[in-house]
Amino acid sequence: IKEKGIWAIEDLEEKIIRPNQWAAVGSKMFKAVSVTHNRLPSGCYSVVKDNNDGSMIFTGKDIKSDDIFPFKGDLTAAFLSEVNEFWGKQKVFKEHGFLHRRGYLLYGAQGTGKSSIVWQIAQDVIKRGGVVFVCENPEFFAKGLTVFRQVEPERPIVCVFEDIDAIIHKYGESAILQLLDGDNQVDRVINIATSYP
Questions:
Q1: Is 176 exposed, middle or buried (0-12, 13-18, 19+ CB in 10 A)?
Q2: How far apart, in whole angstroms, are the C-alpha atoms of residue 161 and residue 195?
Q3: How far is CA 17 from the centre of its chain?
Q4: Contact 76, 116 (CB under 8 A)
Q5: Rounded-to-integer distance, Cα 185 and Cα 181, Å
Q6: Residue 156: which of 123, 180, 132 has the closest Cα?
Q7: Are 34 and 18 within 8 A, CB to CB?
Q8: Measuring CA to CA, which residue among 194, 187, 197 is closest to residue 89?
Q9: pLDDT tens digits, residue range 71-88?
Q10: Largest CA distance in the chain
Q11: Has residue 2 got a pLDDT over 50?
Q12: Are the CB atoms for 188 and 90 separated by under 8 Å?
């Protein structure tokens, strides 16, 4: 029952689950869907492959980080300032024929604040209306970024590679290199990786 613009949970769940429009999934192929969006909601996502049709699925993830109290002149504040400056230089990159992208590798022992910095940057890009993607499988991740850029070519994104050494160990070096410096590069992106000694 809808009262004063508020849906009861049961009604909302039924409304979302019940198909009410068509999505084209190929030439002369359609799938009944309940809701479509022309823009991925701002947030943090992992990318997985749909085992039914091989398409990429973007699954929302919660960002869990402690509240941070910035101190003027500290490393985190300097890092965030540099990232903010980078987002404002899209025109300069374009004028020189470069992709508007930047990469950071945060190296240090556990407990030194790498993840805290990563998630502060992630929260900042989400506040700007951007999207954060967490790499779990480089192959799916690269395909997901390609799909995302086909739908939203200009939106700022942050790609996070937590413990990049473990990702390389599991999937191989070439998959990450192809993603970061090969044919799968994307524009308007900050790539952030963490590594441990």
A1: buried
A2: 9
A3: 25
A4: yes
A5: 6
A6: 132
A7: yes
A8: 187
A9: 777 777 888 889 989 999
A10: 59
A11: no
A12: yes
